[in-house]
Amino acid sequence: THRTRRPKPPERIRRILIRKSEMARKLNHLTDEQKKLRTKILTSRRNMIYRVNNDPNYTNVTICDEWLNDPESYYEWHLANMVEGWDIDKDILSGDSKIYSPETCIFTPRDVNLMNRKSCGKSGLMFKGIMKNGTGYCMKTTYNGTNVYGKTHRTQAEAYADYLQFRSERMEEFIVKYSGHEQLCEALKHDTQQCLEQVRSIR
To answer: Is it the case that residue 159 has pLDDT exceeding 80?
Structure first.
């Protein structure tokens, strides 16, 4: 009896089926705790995508194609680099590009992460970390849950220099505090140098 051979699936479909089979085998080897951690990591990826797509504060932020299209890539990077209790940070390494990617993200402790959040970015102001104060401008930021203010200056740039000076001093403290984390400390040193260079250019 002649038997008709089933046609092979298209290459793209075949790759998907192979990957699903590999993933099923991989998940079967995870403990319950590992499965919970995996769910937590993949949830953080979904939250990251949601923020970038919906949060007005993330208008200029992007996600690399690798993490956007491949959850496993994000999962593997997160698992290899995570520090318990620390947050993923895109600002220290990416600078003005503001992109989530393996090359531009690093895990940072909460106090470092808070220093990178936008401060007092109201319309009409040229810089973060400053505020209008009467007829002049002063530094305004938050540290350890407390508002910190600088002296009043005539220009926004001078007030911003105070913020950069304050920031560089805090970064130097973090370098000592987290001296056992080499990549983080290198990133903080670079941030400190940039702050001080800007201070010198203003003053």
So the answer is: yes
